[in-house]
Amino acid sequence: MLKVISKYSVIASAVLLSISGVDASQEAQNQPIGAETSATVTTAIAKRAKTTTVVNDKLHTQVQKGTATSAVRSNVYTSQKSSSDLEQEFKAFQSLDFKNVKNQTRADMQKHREANSKLPKSSGKAQKNGQNHLYIHDAAVLLFDDLDGDGNYSQLRVDFDVDSPYADYFDVYAELFIRRVGDAQWTHYYTTDVFEIYYDYSSDEYSVTTRLNTGFPPGNYEVLIDLFEYGYSGLVDTLSPYDDYDLTNLPLEDKTYESTGVTSDTYVDNVKTEIFTDADDDGFYREFTFTFDVDTQSSADRDVYVNLYQRNNGGSWQFETESDVFTVYGYSSEDAYEISGSWQSGYPANYYDFRLEVIDANTGEVLDDVSPEFSSLLQVPLEDANNDTRESNPNPPSSTTSSESGGGSTGLVTLILLGLLGAWRQKVKR
């Protein structure tokens, strides 16, 4: 059984798009966030996951810089109606997302791969050492979130260790499948990122944590893992419930069967995250904008506001800001809203998860509460302005600055004076 440390950390598996960026002036905090143009913006967009949501595909997330310079968080937030059409933007994004292949059966995926893949079936290492040059050594499953106490969980974490009998590095990835015990077909629910393993070291263990959103009635489920070597289409190894009993008889149900207390006809459908301003080029940004589309099945318009929370490294949720009240109109894509933030101090460089809580402005009822349903809200690389600075170089390289002017009477007078100075120096030496 693998021994791992549970971390609520996700690298959003979205394909990133680049668009024109904006920057906020730290000195003029009364200026609207994003009022100035600066570096390229990194953008991720996600639609509400219908069946499963991957919550964590890395075992560890480490703070990249030291601790916060201040225990008190300082920030600037604004909120306003957005002109974005998130439905159209998501369609454009989806066409670029190579991992958008959920809910296919394992048999269909294998058939499609054999018929359409242009990649070689196996690597030179496999041909030299045999197909057992890579294998899944062990796996474990941990279950979380049984909110109604009925013994069925809505979140599972699959930990597995890929090894090789040869002292060499390999780039691999895995496809994960799930089915109810007794069913014939395996349903794909996640493809990992490409990750590197070395020999039979246990330090390269991999973890995928998933929340079940819809389509999983209470029952016992099982998981299967297919392993591939990156760049090659052939299946390298499979770990099934017949190989490891930890992968079977998992009491699960999706979150709709859990008594969460949040039942509503109003919900968040799309979320876009934009991050910008990275003065020290360390990959952590200090400004961001969340744009979201709230839809309602009600025939009447609804006035709502949104609470924004953040956390890092699986810690407790910290309240950040409350948006202004805005109106949602059915399934309209023209009522998108946005919250923009600029962090000044109290936020160390890290990967932050965010949470949106939609509140009825008239009754105070919680209408929706989302976080892992949207990959764009997870593992956002941020830091505050105090951390986002370039460190001065104590030993700067040698440099010179020269200027020149020529011609005219001034140049002639200067030459005469220099000549007289030279003659005087010669006289003094004598």
TrEMBL record:
Entry keywords, A to Z: Signal
Protein's UniProt keywords contain Signal: yes
Signal sequence range: 1-24
InterPro entries xrefs: GlyGly_CTERM (IPR020008)
Keyword Signal: yes
Region listing for Disordered, in residue ranges: 106-128, 384-408
Record protein name field: GlyGly-CTERM sorting domain-containing protein
